Automatic annotation (TrEMBL):
Residues 208-218 have a biased composition (Acidic residues). It comes from the Eukaryota. Keywords: Endosome. Residues 169-225 are annotated as: Disordered. Residues 1-121 form the C2 domain. It holds the Pfam family C2. It is found in: Recycling endosome. GO terms for molecular function: small GTPase binding. It comes from Neogobius melanostomus (round goby). This is C2 domain-containing protein. One of its GO terms (cellular component) is early endosome.
């Protein structure tokens, strides 16, 4: 895949978005000794991935990535595509516990960065719940264009009545990189981190059953959103 540079055509449109979950800080401790066994669910539309579980910490270090295919028009004004990151505590007994959630509007990120953005995002409570300090999560969002599907993508963009093109899945693997690279908010993301695991459970919007968890006040909820 190719990524956008400042000199490229302003009409450049990405076909995919690569998401790298780097680390968290200041997370709530819901396990023993004031720590949590933490993982993050990354969701765009009906597709979602999960990081590995980092045990006994409030400052997890994941450095894992995944790639989502963008639907035609996803980055257009009013497209409404949102990347949802839900941080959870893995419970050995009972339901997993919600720790916080960050919602990243992809249209805004693309308009501001035109290629790649590395930032810390505040974790918020569920909609309708009282806000409290939940920590932050560091995420890199990078837009890319797959030349194998670009021509099909352009055709769909010209004819919005056409159904979306078939998905091309890919697995991204790679080595970890230095702290200086991952902490730089202006650097282009270097090639591959550890790959995330795609979650196989269906979402409620896809006709599947609800996914249940507990929030950090002991209340039971359905679904990750």
């Amino acid at each position: 895949m190719s990524s956008l540079s400042p000199d490229e055509d302003q009409k450049w449109l990405p076909t995919h978005v690569q998401v790298t979950v780097l680390k968290g800080r200041g997370l709530r401790g819901k396990g023993k000794h004031g720590t949590s066994d933490v993982y993050t669910i990354i969701q765009l539309g009906k597709e979602k991935y999960s990081t590995c579980v980092v045990e006994k910490t409030t400052e997890p270090d994941w450095r894992e990535e995944c790639t989502f295919e963008l639907q035609p028009g996803a980055l257009a004004s009013g497209g409404g595509s949102e990347l949802v990151l839900t941080v959870m505590h893995r419970a050995l007994i009972g339901l997993d516990v919600f720790l916080g959630q960050a919602v990243i509007p992809l249209e805004t990120v693309f308009t501001e960065s035109r290629g790649v953005k590395n930032a810390w995002y505040r974790l918020n409570s569920k909609t309708g719940k009282k806000e409290k300090e939940r920590g932050e999560i560091q995420v890199t969002v990078q837009f890319t264009r797959n030349n194998l599907t670009a021509s099909m993508y352009d055709l769909v963009m010209k004819d919005k009545g056409t159904s979306t093109f078939s998905k091309l899945k890919e697995r991204i693997k790679g080595k970890r990189h230095s702290k200086e690279e991952e902490d730089s908010s202006s650097a282009i993301l270097p090639g591959g981190y550890g790959s995330l695991v795609r979650m196989r459970q269906r979402l409620p919007s896809d006709g599947g059953g609800e996914e249940y968890y507990e929030d950090d006040e002991g209340e039971r909820s359905g679904g990750v959103r």
